[in-house]
Each structure stands twice: as C-alpha cells, then as structure tokens.
Specification:
homodimer, alpha/beta, Carbamate kinase, VC0802-like, 2 domains, 12 helices
Chain lengths: 407, 407
C-alpha cells in the first residue's frame, strides 16, 4: 500500500463533470490499494471572478481581505469534490488549508509555508477517507488566512507530500508531462520520462511553464518524488526525482524557449566605484526581475553591462536606470533592444560531457541564426536570439542533440 | 461611546452598491463615536447558487460538505464589505465565524452556538477597526465548520452582542420594523415602537416572519436589547427588550396572521390507553411540526383530537396517522381540512386585561366570520378561520383594539 498525493489544477476541476472525473480517479487510486490525499485548486474562472468582484469594489483592495475572498474558491471545489465522491459511493473529507494543518507566515496573497501538522490528515486516511485539501492556502498560528501566490497549489501538494511522507506526489495538469521542447514548436518533441530536480528547476526558470521553480525547490529540499501528468488521460507522465548516475549519460535533456525578452545595455561607464551595485540596486528597487547579466570592459577602459528581462518590464527598467545614469559617468548611455527571445538547453549530463556549447552554437550558426547574450549554469546554456528566429533555433538545436529519439 | 452590533441580511448586501451602502452606514455609526461590529449574511442569491451546484453533484450531499461549501458565501460578503470600507477611507477587518470565536456544537447545517470567545473582536475594536463577522456560521473546538440553519445570521448577531456586551444590537432587514399587522393586509397598520421579548416570540411563532423565535429566545436569555430596522432608510425601528410595567397598559400589541394552515382530526377513538402519545409520537417520528392541539371527549365517550399544521405537511401527516389508526380503536377515523388560516392577537397586557378574548370573538362574529379551533397562551389568543376570511378577520380585530392609533 502506497500513500499518494494527487494535485488537480483549476482546469481539471473546471466543471461539475470534470469534478466527477477527478473523483473517479481518486477512487480508482484508492481502490488499487493506496491511501490518497488530493490537493485541489479553485474551479477555473472562479478565482478570476472573485478578483473581478474585488476590483469592482476598489482598485487596490487590502491584501488580507483578498485572501479572505479568494480562498473561498478552493473551499468550494474541495467540498464539491467530496460530494462527487460520496455520490459514487466513496468516502471523502475536505479540509481548508488551515484544517489541513498548513501553517503559513509572511505576507497576505503571497504567504509562505512554515510547517505542516498533518495529524488530522493521517487520522482521516487511517479511517479510510480520501482526504481532499484546498490548495493555494494556509493559516497562520493566529488564525489568519493566507493564499500562497502563483503556483500555490503545487506548493501545497509538495509540502503535504513531504509532511505525510507520501510515496509519490502526482501533479495533474493539462499536458502529458515535461517535453524535450514545446510540441507546438518542435513537432517531434518527446515527453521526458525522468528528470532530476535541478533539470526541472532550470527548465522552469528558462521558460517551461509546467511548474513554478519554488515548488520544485521544495520537492528537492524534502526529497519528494513527483510526477507531472495529464488529468484527462492515463498516460504515464514525467517523474522528477533526485539525480542519479544514469541521468548523466545524456548531455542534454531538453530545450526551453522563452519569448518576449528585451535587453537593456548601459555603456561608457567611467565611474570608478561599484557601478554594478548602483545599477542592480536601481533595478531591484523598481522590482524588476532581470534574467541574464553580461558585464565587460571595452579596450578603452569604459565598462559596459547588459541585462535581459521580460518585455513588460522594459519601460520600468529604462525609467529606473535613467535616474542613476549620472552616477555612472558623464558619458554613460542607455540602449535598449526589444523583440528578443531566449533559448536554453538543459541537462545534468552537461557537467561531464564537453562540447555541448559547441554543438549548440554550431547548429545555430549553420542555420544562419545570430546569437546575442550568452549565460550558463553548470547544467544549462542560454542564449538570446531574435524573436523571429526562436522557433527555427529550437528545432535545429533539438535535432542537433537527437532529442526526438528515445533516450 | 456605545458598542453597537449591526446585522445585515442577504438583500442588504445583495449587490456591490448595496455593500457600499452598508459600509457607509457602518462608518457613520463609528464616526458618531461608537464601536461597531457588523454581522453579515451572504449576498442574496449566493447561498442558493451554491446549494444548486451541490444538487448538480448529488441529490443529498453530505451535510459536512454542505457547510464547507455554503459557508463561503458569508466569507465572501465580509471580505467585500471590508474592501468597501477601505475604499471609503475606513478601517475594517473581516472574520469568519471561527475567527470571530463563535464556537458551535451539534449537527452540520444546523449547528448551535456553544459559546463565544470575543477577545479577537474586542482587540480589533480597541485598535479602531470596524469588525465585520460572517453570520450564519461557527466552528467546533475540532475546527469543523458549522452553519447555523435558518435565521442563523440573526442568531450570530444576538450571540455576539451578548458576548461583547453590546449596548444595542440592530437587526437590519427590508422592513421598517415590526407592525401591528401586515401592512399589505391592514392598510392602517402601525410600526410598533417597543415590544417585550415574549410578545416578539409569540408574534414570531404566530406568523410575523421578521425573526426566528430562537434568536429572540437567545436575546431574552442574555438580556440583549435589539432593534429591527430597515437598511434602506434611517427610520427608527422596533425595539425589543425586557418587559416593563408600562407595556401592560396596552391589552393587545399586534395581530399576526398565518396562511396555508390545515387541520387533521382523529375521531371515534376508543382505545383505553395513551392514545395522545401514540398520535403525537407518530407525527414527531415523521418530523411534522404541529401547531394547535385540541382534544376532547364526545358525549358517547369517544375521544377526538385535532391538530393544525402547515398545509405542506398535510400529506405526510395523513400518511403517518393512517399507520397508527388501528391502534386507536376499531372505529377510529381520520378527517382533514385544508384551506385554513390562523389569526393571533398578542400582548403582555392581556394578563391583566380581562375581556380580550371576548372582544376578538365579538368582532369576528359581527363580521360574520366563522372561527374554528382556538388556542391560547398567557399573552396570545389564536383561532383558525377560513383562508378566504383571514384578511377581513385581521382588519376587524385590528380595528376592535384601535391598533391604528399611537399607543
């Protein structure tokens, strides 16, 4: 007998029929001899509708009251799911985040999980119940309701899986798993069977939108093995787990693409002091998330720094940097470039396989694709390309590593 | 400075504009130098919509899950009301029933209030907040959510008013107060300024639908003075409080009418044993609420019992009594009469004013109205009349006691 946590997102419980479908899956999993904990998001559209009501009342509602309001979405879906299970003759009990023992701290609308007291869940499992927990929410020791921000239901599922020492955590979504590249771009992209946490993290941060990085980090921290799979079929998904030696045989696991990138360059910097700190502080104060950073010094001794970011943040970045430009020297200038995209190749095998970068840039050059900024981690190589080149770039790099073939 | 609890029903918060209106009232009450606790129902229609969703899932959903689902309605309205207050520059904090310290016991969907721990409310009031509590709900010591059944928000308001030792509890509704009779029936009916708890109880149980009897009973138990008033205007309402000698000067305070009544008569009872127990047990087992009971013995020694009840329960009552008829004697028979109504006159002055019953039945007789069963309490006289006579009956009795005149 295994203990399995299954997480279902908003589209998986988006209608009464889909809620029934999820209930059936949970009962099948239980009938197969497992203890089952479900973590469920609000029905798709409900959270947006609640936010819309709040915006009708005021532009910028108090975050505490937003949490009170929005947390009702999951409370409704867990209750309806338990009813669906009861209707099919099963035994289920629903818990809010607070009832599930998810203890949070931090700010409203972006609470963080402090700890989980799973005794109530464990008792219900022992009594034969399917336990249905509201995702995306928790409660402080003072009894304040918190929501957990974007990707919060995944986070709830991973954290609960850690707390109840689940054998497996299944993240149900509307795709079959993690692919070697976006199948809409690369036709012969293949579902990846197994990934390490690090690879999943690099893919999450480089454009594969299946899961937020913080959920993967939590899984890694507590060694929670999880599987990304499709709630609409029974296909096996992608298992994400601790790295093992077998994974290194493959240099590259997948190719991620991220569109809507922009670059800002500050050049002719002559300030003798810590200009990097000035620039990064200005961007951080404006709450701009920068991605790649490239810094160098030209032959004339003047420094130059470039950053990439999402296109939406370009205007704010320009404004923030204009203010500090005078501190960077009398000639310091600002240039921007929009219309970029980012291509990344990811794989733990990169550590022990030399020549990965050479293969990437050879493939791109042979296809006549111009590359811009380059950034690397131990298991990832990223480069910017023109937005119009990104699909072609993904296809040639995917082909260069033969990712269409079963590993 | 007074501490005032204000309760707003679903229609008072039925739209975003109405929520703003309630917010404005709360802020005005606070600005006048008071501490303010609001108790709020779900926006009108929301509870029914949630029940409808549950019924889409299954006919008879588990009551625990119904409470999880339905309690979200009030949680949403309290959050939205706090946002409206924030938008107008005020300071408000919302609490679920559990957060407000409303501790419940009993069954799901009809929980009962065990106690209230108001410390969190008191702290928030001291910090200058308007406290907005979800009505109709509470939490068990185990953290289970309960709803309180029909009239539950009134009950929450009265109980909270008792717990925080409020100076006044205002029950806002869509009428100006309690009237000497239904103004749709008696054109010159007058709003009653002051009523005793007992009078309010008798009026509630004899057809005046302003409040459920159990809320009035709770107010009486804890001496909570409350006022029934209209959320759409600033007219003074009806104050309900402890009886005082001045109230006795008036023999009759008001006339209540209740339509849709039916009578069941069991006659020719010859069973020598406790036939009343057999009959009442059969009705109680079928969960039929009976109202008036008349029992007597005919000149031939055969017993006869009649009961009134809501017309909707007539079929179930017949079925229940048919089963036990053989136990009541070989000739025992069952007769039913539908199409009745009930008229009641209520007033604590009745205790010390003789002749009230004579005035009632003289007025009805003079108008040619035939009366049927009669029941009395210390401060109430009720009689059944034909349904088609009830409006005329109300008018002649109202006039006989000169209730159209200011007391």
């Amino acid at each position: 007998m295994a203990l399995i946590v299954q997480k279902y997102g908003g589209s998986s419980v988006g209608t009464i029929d889909r809620i029934r479908n999820v209930g059936r899956r949970l009962m099948e999993t239980q009938s197969a001899g497992n203890q089952v904990v479900a973590v469920v998001s609000a029905m798709s559209g409900v959270t947006d509708k609640l936010i819309g009501m709040a915006r009708q009342v005021m532009d910028n509602p108090p975050e505490r009251e937003m949490d009170m309001l929005v947390s009702t979405g999951e409370q409704q879906s867990v209750a309806l799911l338990c009813m669906a299970i009861a209707d099919m003759g099963g035994k289920a009990v629903s818990f809010t985040g607070g009832q599930a023992g998810i203890c949070t701290y931090g700010s409203h609308t972006r609470g963080r999980i402090e700890s989980i007291s799973p005794q109530r869940i464990i008792d219900a499992l022992r009594s034969g119940y399917i336990v249905v927990c509201a995702g995306f929410q928790g409660m402080t020791p003072d009894g304040e309701i918190h929501t957990l921000g974007r990707g919060g239901s995944d986070l709830s599922a991973i954290a609960l899986a850690a707390a109840v020492k689940a054998d497996l955590c299944q993240i149900y979504t509307d795709v079959d798993g993690v692919y070697t590249c976006d199948p809409r771009v690369v036709k012969d992209a293949r579902k990846i069977t197994v990934l390490s946490y690090e690879e999943m993290l690099e893919m999450a941060s480089s454009g594969s939108k299946v899961m937020q990085a913080r959920s993967v980090e939590l899984a890694k921290k507590f060694g929670v093995i999880f599987e990304v799979r499709n709630s609409m079929n029974n296909n096996p998904g992608t298992i994400v787990q601790e790295e093992n030696p077998a994974m290194e045989s493959l240099a590259v696991r997948g190719v991620s693409i991220e569109r809507n990138q922009a670059r800002v360059t500050v050049s002719s910097i002559t300030a003798p002091v810590a200009y990097t700190a000035i620039i990064l502080t200005a961007l951080a104060d404006a709450e701009i998330n920068i991605d790649m950073i490239v810094a160098n010094t030209a032959h004339d001794g003047k420094a130059r720094q470039s950053f990439t970011m999402n296109m939406n943040e370009l205007g704010a970045a320009q404004a923030a940097l204009k203010k500090v430009l005078p501190q960077l020297g009398p000639e310091a200038r600002l240039d921007t470039e929009a219309g970029l995209a980012k291509l990344s190749v990811v794989g733990v095998g990169m550590r022990s396989n030399s020549g990965v970068a050479a293969t990437v840039f050879r493939a791109l050059a042979d296809a006549g694709i111009h590359t811009g900024m380059i950034a690397t981690s131990e298991i990832r190589i990223s480069t910017t390309v023109e937005a119009s080149d990104i699909e072609k770039a993904a296809r040639v790099v995917h082909a260069a590593f033969h990712l269409e073939k079963e590993a």
